[in-house]
Specification:
Helices cover 47% and strands 2% of the residues. It is mainly alpha-helical and 255 residues long. It has a two-stranded antiparallel ribbon.
């Protein structure tokens, strides 16, 4: 560095050569025309690249905002959570027999610990100076195996997931005003429908009964014959009360 010229930047490599015991790099004078001022030339380039990525990321978040779901409900035991994409391979791993149920510890702790331990041991397992992949078969093979496993498990998780059901169960819906003095609601409470569908018909073990879009006759038919996880014969009351209940549910719509 010369007085008045500013600080110069040049690539610096401390990799020891095979036939040279010295770890000191050559003098900067051996790089004529390849140096540049750190400020503002080099640093300005770094900032420009960073600004491009930042603007691109902001555009992506505006164009595709994060999906939001309804408020968490600890009483809803039927909700199936879905992790972010970078954890999908672990999510899929826990679906297999040897990594779930009584073997949960294997899938949740043992397998990830082995993978992380292998990454930590990688520098000690291969200490050769070669940089070409073909001359480093073991670390390259392990890395390709890990990458292939993550890609496969992520793909399996995406393909086998019921995205339509996941979207429906987490939708934010407008609250419907419930008149608990309505004759239909009293039938609803009397028939213990609250146990599965909630006190505000918001759903729980059973589906949400607001905004169903069903007619009273369709609702009455489901009450008798059942649907999905609801077995037939759940309704035990009179036909007159059933009509009140069906009319009440069919009219529950968000304003």
């Amino acid at each position: 560095m010369h007085k008045g010229k500013g600080m110069k930047f040049v690539g610096d490599s401390r990799v020891q050569e095979k036939n040279n015991k010295s770890v000191y790099p050559p003098d900067y004078s051996e790089y004529p025309g390849k140096t540049e001022p750190f400020w503002p030339d080099f640093l300005l380039k770094e900032w420009m690249v960073g600004a491009v990525f930042l603007v691109g990321y902001l555009i992506l978040t505006v164009a595709h905002p994060s999906p939001l779901e309804g408020q968490a409900d600890p009483t809803n035991t039927g909700y199936i959570p879905m992790p972010d994409w970078y954890f999908l391979f672990l999510y899929q791993l826990l679906k297999y027999e040897y990594a779930s149920g009584p073997y949960n510890t294997i899938g949740a702790i043992v397998v990830p610990a082995i993978a992380i331990g292998a990454l930590m041991l990688a520098p000690f397992l291969d200490r050769g100076p070669e940089r070409k992949p073909l001359k480093r078969p073991l670390p390259v093979a392990f890395m390709l195996l890990a990458l292939a496993s993550m890609v496969y498990l992520t793909w399996e998780s995406v393909v086998n997931h019921d995205w339509a059901a996941a979207k429906k169960q987490g939708q934010i819906v407008k609250e419907v005003e419930i008149d608990q003095e309505d004759p239909g609601y009293k039938v609803y409470a009397k028939q213990s429908c609250i146990n599965c569908h909630g006190d505000k018909l918001q759903g729980g073990a059973g589906p949400n009964l607001t905004n169903t879009g069903l007619s009273p006759d369709e609702i009455a038919k489901i009450a008798h014959e059942g649907k999905g996880g609801m077995p037939p014969g759940q309704y035990k009351g009179s036909d007159e009360d059933l009509q009140k209940l069906a009319k009440f549910i069919s009219e529950l719509k968000a304003e």
